[in-house]
User: Fold this.
Amino acid sequence: MLKIKDKDVILFQGDSITDGNRGRSSDPNHIHGHGYQYILASEMYADNLCVDFDVVNKGISGNRISDLYGRWKEDCLNIKPTVLSVIIGINDIYGNFNCGCGSDTERFKKIYRLMLDEALEINPDLFIVIMEPFFGTAKDDTEWDKYAKENIGKFALAVKEIAEEYNAVFVPLQDIFNEYSEKTDIFKLLWDGVHPTTGGHQLIVRRWKECVEPRLNAR
Assistant:
């Protein structure tokens, strides 16, 4: 059970994996989208019904780290989160592959640190969760498949390094999909090699809770 504090603001940030076709209005039926963040939000709300808090989803499909930083003031700092969970990186890899418009790992880390530094200036007690970007297998593009597999590990190491620097909770995810790909068709979990299915999102939820719950509940 995830124990949430009174006045907590839990912010999920990232790309399409977090976006989940979320509504862009205040309609509470659609505001969290679908996916891991929706499942986590539903558990938080149901298990903490007498607590006054908010769960906010501001993921946007297609975002690279530079896109996320471009909206950081509006979609993070102004929200003043007490808990911040981020997954970003796969679109930087694809941008580098497709048009040379992603960030390499050094620039990626520089921007990531800048975002976290600014968030910590607003709230020095910010509880940070950094999720590992992951990749399965491309269905029809062998060049993209090869490029992504050659580079995903570099970005995974980058976010793990940042998590250690900032004493953040690191949520490894690549190993989950590697493990299950040996047991079943990977496309049952990542329908296009990147975006999770319902089952894939549930695996993310389990790992997120496994990593985050002990430290979150001990605050």
Notes: The beta strands are 9-14, 54-57, 83-87, 127-131, 169-171.
